[in-house]
UniProtKB/TrEMBL annotation:
GO MF entries: ABC-type oligopeptide transporter activity; ATP binding; ATP hydrolysis activity
Pfam families: ABC_membrane (PF00664), ABC_tran (PF00005)
CDD domains, per the entry: ABC_6TM_ABCB8_like, ABC_MTABC3_MDL1_MDL2
Gene Ontology CC, one term: mitochondrial inner membrane
Gene3D superfamilies (UniProt xref): ABC transporter type 1, transmembrane domain (1.20.1560.10), P-loop containing nucleotide triphosphate hydrolases (3.40.50.300)
Annotated localization: Mitochondrion inner membrane
Membrane topology according to the record: Multi-pass membrane protein
Record-annotated membrane-spanning stretches: 132-152, 186-206, 260-277, 283-303
Entry keyword set: ATP-binding, Ion transport, Membrane, Mitochondrion, Mitochondrion inner membrane, Nucleotide-binding, Potassium, Potassium transport, Transit peptide, Transmembrane, Transmembrane helix, Transport
All residue ranges annotated as the ABC transmembrane type-1 domain in the record: 136-424
Descriptive protein name: Mitochondrial potassium channel ATP-binding subunit
Domain of life: Eukaryota
Amino acid sequence: MSQLLCSRLCVTACSRPLSFSSLCSKTGGKWKLSRWYTAHSHTSTQPPGNPFHRIWNLTQRAIHHSSSRTSKSPGLKFILGPAVLTVSARLFCRVACCEADDNNNAPEEVILKDSVPDFKWHILWEFVKPQLFALIGAVVLAFGAAMLNIQIPLMLGDLVNVVARYLREHSGTYVNEIKGPAIKLLGLYAIQGLLTTGYIILLSRVGERVAADMRKTLFASLIRQDVAFFDANKTGQLVNRLTADIQEFKSSFKLVISQGLRSITQTVGCFVSLYIISPKLTGLTVVVLPCLVGAGAIIGSFLRKLSRLAQEQVAKATEVADEALGNVRTVKAFAMEERELQLYAHEVDKSCEMNENLGGGIAVFQGLSNVALNCIVLGTIFAGGTLISSDEMSPGDLMSFLVASQTVQRSLASISILFGQVVRGMSAGARVFEYLSLKPTIPLSGGGRIPFHSLIGRVDFMNISFSYPTRPGHEVLKKFSLTLPPCKTVAIVGESGGGKSTVASLLERFYDPTNGVVMLDGLDIRTLDLAWLRGQVIGFINQEPVLFGSSIMENIRFGKPDATDAEVISAAKQSNAHRFIMSFPDGYNTMVGERGVALSGGQKQRIAIARALIKNPSILVLDEATSALDAESERVVQEALNRATRGRTVLIIAHRLSTIQGADLICVMSNGRIVEAGTHLELLSKGGLYSDLIRRQRAEGQK
Ligand SMILES: Nc1ncnc2c1ncn2[C@@H]1O[C@H](COP(=O)(O)OP(=O)(O)OP(=O)(O)O)[C@@H](O)[C@H]1O
């Protein structure tokens, strides 16, 4: 809407001077603006509507009035009219920018609600350092452009004075008189254009490179954090750091350097110019301008709050849609499409209402700004006219004053907007830096050793106590001890939530025990190289294997990035996957879809087994690897698993007791402890918890 207004205004600004010329005739000497205004300000002939039009017409008629009385200066019509229009058009644009700013920045303000860590300058310096030359170049060019901007109003004034003098004295030809200052001004515009282009190019290069480096470093830092970190932080929030926060920081960074520097230089410079042109008028401006800018900032911050709430509501609606679309199979399985639709519609309606309120607020703000800002132009012309009439000022000076005061006004307004942007940018940067300086409690590499001897594959859990970092008060394992003898299969069974998967997580070193130690071949696994341990020693297959959205070949190769095609095919054969893979038209190049949706559960599981086997691990952990499969898939997968477990130390966590009856040792876990252990037959003969579990499962199977 406001952009539309701006464009309309610009069109008007271009077309007005033509009609303006017909109203003016020659003028010379002094302007009688103030007297004229006093006489005409109450006339009913002013057109209704936009205050800009009123100022426009008053200005036109003032000049007409003045010119008709002194009848000497048609040149002024070319200068003052467009100048007033340009100034007003800029004001409209600025309001429009405020609106855009409110809307664009609000989503990131949602993030602002989180606790904001300290901004670490030394981290910023690390990113800026490689771009220092380009940055200094951008600053110098931006400063140069700002300095020229201070010069331009003065030169415009000179131009007006030259024209006025020519009209008064008629000495020489008009073109000769005006040529010099006009060419100077043109040159200044050209240089300013070049400087602006230069600093924007350099700045955008610096901004993009800093942002790209930050993204890469942040992603590297996140991906290296341990599992506990991901338990405590939502993925969406982390992705937000990579996207929205860095984007926000980049925009602020660029804005502060370009606009901040420019606005401060221009404000100071133009104020000096204003004072030199007319101390009296400057005094008036000093009183009025800050009041208006302050009021604008207060209303602006209220609107930003409204905008933030509206954006929060939009985010809520998006969350609903995201969840529904992300879990579309579950939604369809429960025929919940209508309910999801209603939920989404409800949230969207709320956001629509809030955005309408925001639109109303912006409209009122724009209306008030227009009136206030145009009043300043009018006031300046009014007061300036008085000074001209008393010979204290020339028309050119008034022109210079008008343009310079608008530059100050624009600069002050952008400083106030900039302040909010700086706060948002620094908060966003601080949140990004917070994650950059995080050190994982279990570092993936560095310091850990890799044993020289070939592994025997014995694992000892010794007196382990453990609580998850996100639930420190809840002890999941209590003085838990267990030995996995080399090349033997040990199964853990027991009640749900008893801590079975936690044992596997400790072996993978996703977490470190609170007390006790996990040993591999007699070595504390905390002293071993983690990348080696996970990458080469332990193979892990769980209930819901997650595949990446690439080809089958790439998914199997994920287990060993340097594996040859022959190794991939061999691993697929061992895991009973080769035959079904070859039945696809694209064979190993078949794409598996997002998270492997284009494959059946059994197929995914066999790819996951191949992925684990390709690294030829000494220890294999199967966490309920077949519990999600139907009987036929389970048979094929089980066959693959039986082959895979040969000659390896195996830890099986199982729900279906039928799959672990051949294990060398079966441990029954309850409440974080092993309460029974033995072979299948030994445990059956004991008639304890295990035989209870077997009985219950058989009974369920017969139902
Ligand atoms: N990441 C986690 N953060 C906090 N608590 C957790 C986490 N994972 C599991 N727990 C808790 O630890 C306890 C043991 O969970 P675990 O998954 O080891 O049990 P389980 O015996 O494997 O259960 P199931 O047979 O149902 O898979 C449970 O109370 C569970 O709520």
